[in-house]
Amino acid sequence: MARIGVFVCWCGSNIAETVDSEGVGEYAAKLPGVAVSMDYKYTCSDPGQKMIIEAIREHKLTGVVVASCSPRMHETTFRRTVAGVGLNPYLLEMANIREHCSWVHHDKEAGTEKAKILVRMMVEKVKHNHKLYPIKVPVTNRALVIGGGIAGIQAALDIAKEGHEVIIVEKQPSVGGHMSQLDETFPTLDCSQCILTPRMVEIIQDKNIKLYAYSEVESVSGFIGNFKVKIRRKSRYLKESECTGCSDCEEPCPVELKNEFNEGLDTRKAIYRPFTQAVPNSFLIEKTKEPAPCKVVCPIGQNVQGYVALMSKGKFKEALKVVRETNPFPSVCGRVCTHVCETACNRSRIDEPISIASLKRVLGDFEAANPELITYAKPEETKSEKVAVVGAGPAGLVCAYDLAKAGYKVKVFESTPVAGGMLYLGIPEYRLTRDVIAREVKAIQDMGVEIELNSPVDDAQELLKKGYKAVFLGIGCQKGKDLGIEGEDAEGSTDAVAFLKKVNLGETTKVDGNVIVVGGGNSAIDAARSALRLGAKQVKIVYRRSKKEMPADPREVEDAEKEGVSIEFLSNPTKVITENGRITEVECLRMELGEPDGSGRRRPVPVKGSEFIIKSDLLIRAVSQAMEQDFDKSENIKLSRWKTVDVDPLTLATSVDGIFAGGDGVNGPETVVRAMEDGYIAAESIKRFLTSRDLKEGRNFPAHKVTEEPAERLFEGVEKASRVKIPEISIEDRNNFKEVASVLSDEDAIKEAKRCLNCGICSECGECGKACEKDLIDHNMEDEIVEEDVGAIVVATGYDLMDPSVYEEYGYKKYPDVLTSLEFERMVSASGPTNGKLIRPSDGQTPKNVVFVQCVGSRDEDKGYPYCSGICCMYTAKHTMLFKHKVPDGKAFVFYVDVRASGNNY
Fold first, then answer.
1. How confident is the model over 836-862, as pLDDT tens digits?
2. Exposed (0-12), middle (13-18) or buried (19+): which is 650, by Cβ within 10 Å?
3. What pLDDT, on the 0 to 100 scale, is given for residue 874?
4. How far apart are CA 823 and CA 817, in angstroms?
5. Distance, CA of 289 to chain centre
6. Inter-residue contact 828 to 262 (CB < 8 Å)
7. Do 318 and 771 touch, CB atoms closer than 8 A?
8. Lowest mean pLDDT among 626-635, 679-688, 889-898
9. 441 in Cβ contact with 419 (< 8 Å)
10. Burial of 199 (0-12, 13-18, 19+ CB in 10 A)
């Protein structure tokens, strides 16, 4: 049972003048659990303490409440008093009735009532207190300093001199902080580097100091004397400890970015060190968390930024090598790729996306002019296993290419007389010339891939029985679908796939009369433009939706219309009218758009009574494509409900062990680059299958979606510049299958490449790795989490300048000659971007009059900060002297609110 003693102090008149101390004591005596209650003029005095001691002994108290003045002043005194008589000191509580009652109340009655409440609270609290005993805990004899500026450096050095270990964590690649950016220091105007650099070097040399540069504290746990700290060491993408700072890697890097150390007044490379005296004196590579958007969305992960960056420097040979790392069809893709990379290009936020496809074509044609550049590294070893590929389209050829690179013997079986699949059979020559396809197919053959033409496979499982250890089905969709309307099987009706095959194989050389093409995809556009070139009198496309919903490449649609193809939008054929078994007219119905369907496009709805007739001598159906199912006599290979090959979506494995499938035969009609992606996925699965590895382990579905927002600094200072126009032959000359689009000149290609924003920072072009003789570059390096035990932590994280652009009246970032204090500092520094010459950024001339504006953002709760930084007055005084040293006949004007210079404290 609790036996509490309450002792109320008068504190002379300090408490008693506004609080009835006797009344509070009498009130406390009646509280439950209180064994004794006393009041005394000075409880903290020696007699007062003896009174408490005697009460504890006499009443066998289990707890004590002292109602007096501040616990900060006397809590230690009273704890010592109760401990001296055997009561645990933590069974004492204090009620502060001086500061909380007498000093804040004028009404004695109110002050007394409040004192009673505080005493009652402490009585209840002390009932729940437990005995506590002091313990000794070992202290980790190490300190952590967060921040490697001059304050952090000096703190670390001072602690280390006392014999303690110190860990410095600095988020920048080098220690030195803002002081390393200064030219001279106030008040002596000594060189900042002269003061700072010896201390920076001393950090590296001191055995008691461990430096984690380019690192950040992730978390701190534990307690005073025993902290556990998690530190993220950000990857430099090179071996820091072995880097000598020779800078050989820096010059060949094609990526140029604003130099933060020089406050954006000049540029640096993606591989860099902040400044020459950096500690550690190691280079690093800067990258974004995910690659540039163009690479992220590309189905084959083409390193677009890599080759574009190299092209911006005129390094076409090196750029071609980057393309060839993942793409065996640079010339093909440069002509017919749907370039989703361009839709993701951040340059479109400023003006227009980079013309990525045309740049790739430049490299493809550059390769054609320099065939000796088509070289592939031979595989480390030749494997004994044979792999069969059915279909020499993009999916099959890429699968064969990737397997050949790994050393496997690959044979491709193609049912038609040409290799290339729908590249050759489905795309007209005015878009993709046959020599381009032949050249890039030959490069794959030169790697050892055997292609057998006119060799249809009617039972894929037979290939396994013939000794092939795995089979890839890249059979495509080479059969057109019907419209499902009356009379469409009449003479003069065909599908786009069959029509384009005959055109591209030279079997159809003439088209007469009026042609109707039904559909809105690229095949429809290709068929229409081809028919026009073959002599058709009139070509009309009938499409059931509006132009906005048309899936064909907008540029192809635009070209078709320029060449004379007319398009009936919001129309759909309902019946074919014939005479003597041959098509003469097509009846159509007007449509209107309703609610969106599964594709996200608005569903076309027939308009009753809107029938109309179009004369036609040839009807070309281009509504969809299907797979010709003649590859599996046993019917063991499972098909989907869409009659395509059913595969595991991650591995592309079919229902038959050892047989894989991809491309249009799995996905339905898709793009060239999407088929190429499946070729790579299947090749990886086949390699795993042949080496008895798990097909799924460590693999994920490629999202091809950009998740990282671009940094604002990418767009700063970028001037608008339209993309280079691709040269084309005139409309009048498009009466044959001569290629319409021409290749960019080298000059235009370089100009276009220079528009790239370098969104991924490092382009991973590989040039720095080739220049590093010690082979220190490692693009696969990852961040490292380290744990350190420390006993004390010093936070010296420094400051960042406020962005003055929020004050529009100053025109910062609007007018080039408006600078921040640090920008001015870097300009006048001998190690700065102008070698210490003070110039106007707008014209490069020396300014004769300079205005210094103080207090920007200071004591401003709306846009800035509510406090005064306390150093700017002296900082500006230094700047005026630096200006006068550089321009003795110049005039400096200082605009200020008031001067709060710190005198001799500086």
1. 999 999 999 999 999 999 989 988 988
2. middle
3. 87
4. 11
5. 4
6. no
7. no
8. 626-635
9. yes
10. middle
| Residue 206 tokens, joined | 């001191």
Instruction: Specify the pairing of strand 470-473 against strand 386-390.
Output: parallel
Q: CA–CA distance from 62 to each of 12, 89, 116, 131 (Å)?
A: 28, 11, 21, 10
pLDDT tens, position by position, 583-617: 999 999 999 999 888 777 889 999 999 999 999 99
Cα separations in angstroms, 489 against 163, 333, 483, 495: 95, 36, 10, 10
93 is written with which tokens?
A: 């509580």
The DSSP annotation for 869-892 comes to -S-HHHHHHHHHHHHHHH-TT-EE
In this structure, are residues 119 and 97 in contact, taking their beta carbons and an 8 Å threshold? Answer: yes
Q: What are the beta bridge partners of residue 223? A: 226
Max CA pair span of the chain: 131
- Collapsing DSSP states into helix, strand and coil, what is residue 569? coil
Distance CA 398, CA 330 (A): 12
Peptide bond into 727 cis (omega under 30): no
In the chain, the N- to C-terminal Cα span, in Å, equals 63
Token look-up 């002390």 returns: 126
Take residue 511 and report the two structure tokens written for it: 């088209």
- Give yes or no for a contact between 503 and 495, defined as CB atoms under 8 angstroms apart: no
Q: How far apart are CA 680 and CA 249, in angstroms?
A: 32
* DSSP tag of 488: T
**856: alpha, beta or left, given left = phi > 0 and alpha = psi -120 to 50?**
beta
Q: How many angstroms separate the CA atoms of 696 and 682, rounded?
A: 12
CA–CA separation, 806 vs 809, rounded Å?
Answer: 9
- For residue range 228-240, list pLDDT tens digits in order: 999 999 999 999 9
* Residue carrying the six token digits 């767009």: 715
CB 571 within 8 A of CB 565: no
Helix (H, G, I), strand (E, B) or coil at 645: strand
Neighbours of 287 (CB within 10 A): 17
| Among 637, 665, 623, CA closest to 478 | 665
At 481, the amino acid letter reads: K
Sign for the CA dihedral angle at 730, 736, 738, 739 comes to: positive
What angle do helix axes 108-127 and 21-29 make, rounded to 10 degrees? Answer: 40
- Determine the Cα–Cα distance for residues 899 and 881; give it in Å rounded to an integer: 17
Phi, psi of 279 (to 5 degrees): -130, 115
d(CA 292, CA 469): 38
Residue 702, number of CB atoms within 10 A of its CB: 16
Q: How many residues does the chain have?
A: 906
User: Phi and psi for 83 in degrees, rounded to 5?
Assistant: -65, -30
881: CB partners within 8 A, 6+ apart: 189
Q: Could you check whether the bond before residue 47 is cis, i.e. omega within 30 degrees of 0?
A: no
Write down the residue that tokens 């009753």 correspond to: 608
Helix ranges (DSSP H) in 505-568: 522-533, 554-563
8 Å CB contact between 776 and 243 = yes
For residue 212, list its beta bridge partners: 169
| Integer Rg of the chain from CA | 40
pLDDT class for 498, splitting at 50, 70, 90? very high
State the alpha helices, DSSP H only, in 466-553.
Answer: 496-504, 522-533
Sign, CA dihedral 541-547-549-555, equals: positive
**Residue pair 527/500 in contact by the 8 Å Cβ criterion:** yes
CA angle (263 as vertex; 259, 265 as ends), nearest 5: 70
Indicate the burial class of 310 (C-beta count within 10 angstroms; 0-12, 13-18, 19 or more).
buried
Nearest alpha carbon to residue 11 among 21, 25, 23, 26: 21
Contact between 312 and 753 under an 8 Å Cβ cutoff? The reply is: yes
Query: What share of the chain in percent tops pLDDT 90?
Result: 85
